[in-house]
Amino acid sequence: MRRIRWVAAAVSAAAVVVSSVTPASASDGGLGRFYHQRLAWKACTLGPGDEVGAQLDAAGARCADVTVPLDYAHPEGRTMTVAISRLAASDTGHRIGTMILNGGGPGPSIDLPPYMRELMGAAGPRYDLVGVDPRSLGRSGAVDCGWPSATWIKGSGETRRSFEVSVGFAEDLAARCARTNGAVLPYISTRNIARDLDVVRGALGERKVSYNGASYGTYLGQVYAAMFPGRLDRVVLDSSQDGASWGPRLLAGTQQANEHALSHWAAWAAGRHATYGLGDTRAEVLATVHRILAASARSPLVVGRYRLDDTMLPVVLADNLGTDEEDARATLAESVRVLAQAAAGRPVRPTPALDDELAYVLTGTDSRDGSGQAAIICGDVAAPRDPAVYWRDVRRHRRGSPVFASMSYDIGPCAFWPARPAEPPTRLGGPLPALMVAATGDTRTPYERNRTVHRLLPGSRMITLRDADVHAPYQRGYPNLCVRDRVNDYLATGRLPARDLVCPAEH
């Protein structure tokens, strides 16, 4: 299973900008040389330790760098490269076309083709599957601001004092990006990523491409469809993000879905009290979580080499509520058991999974992950600048969401971002015969956001996965044959269901 995070991996930002190139004719807006460039396909492994490249090479994929303008308003100027991978169709006699993949985040997606080929069943070998690292991420001129954390997501904590600490944290993140990457931040946005995708389409020699996007990838797909109508063939949107809630405050409104998922997990853990010792009723397990949160507000929990306070505990919990699969629930229960012991003042060491989680959110080892993600989000939509706005919203929602309101409404680096969005957000909507997948208990893109997108896309059909707390069920490989078979049938035939469908949970 491919883990889908809110933030995803990236690499060094050292070479975003390269030399100028010779202008093309004015009749094509100066973009003809980009659309008609010849790609140099090569092995994907960049060097020792490149696991993604090695996996792509083992699967038979090839990689290339696509040259695009840094600034599409001035295509005669500086350029950058966007990294792509391609796993060519093996069933050439029944080849359907090229499909571009995006796994959300925003994060890199160059690794997706082998995984998606397996997931797509009989349809997989009939496509050239293309993974693209969006600009600012992965191998595409990644932004790395040298952050002390891999994520920009943080909670306000339980007090005004802890909120002020989170304000300082957000301001510091933005300042680091201004110092290290200020020259390129104005050119990082979803609209420019969509333009890059169209250059990729042209460079691949395709008149149309199919598209399969999850989470942020659904927003990118909608932006691409609006900016370049008529260039998409078969489209899958898996856990859709609507345009109205996209931006620096995209977590606002997700708190109740996370509280519900936490409650469902608590009921599961209560049934296994003999194993985890967290309480033998749902209420008792939730009380354990609340005690841990209260203890972390008094003093950071000591978990091995880590210190976990009330500003980051909700992030750790939420990051483990992306699916209700048995293994994921057990992992969270094991982590909460350790945290409960730490809250009681006992010396503890993290489980391997918790160690990985805490290293990710509490150290700067993967600072490039959140840096590139924030660059896109802050480049798309301006954030309120007044910290009082965020504190007011945290207080307003805390009663109804005691664990997750502080995370969902807290301030972030976009409030202090050095570059304002260069363009207004894209107006989304219009005819797009896409197949949508939505889970009623989605904790990242709540079900109502999916319904909003569905209403804006006449001709789309939506598969609702009922009674499941999971984000991006298709791309995640969630064990539901009803969803998987219907998506794969559409990818193979191009025929949308005659009407919206409901798939019951299968666990």
TrEMBL record:
It holds the Pfam family Abhydrolase_4. The keyword Cytoplasm does not apply. Transmembrane segments: none annotated. Residues 1-26 form the signal peptide. Keywords: Hydrolase, Signal. GO terms for molecular function: hydrolase activity. SUPFAM superfamilies: alpha/beta-Hydrolases. The keyword Signal applies. Residues 406-503 form the Peptidase S33 tripeptidyl aminopeptidase-like C-terminal domain. Gene3D superfamilies: alpha/beta hydrolase. Belongs to the peptidase S33 family. This is Alpha/beta hydrolase. It comes from Actinoallomurus iriomotensis.
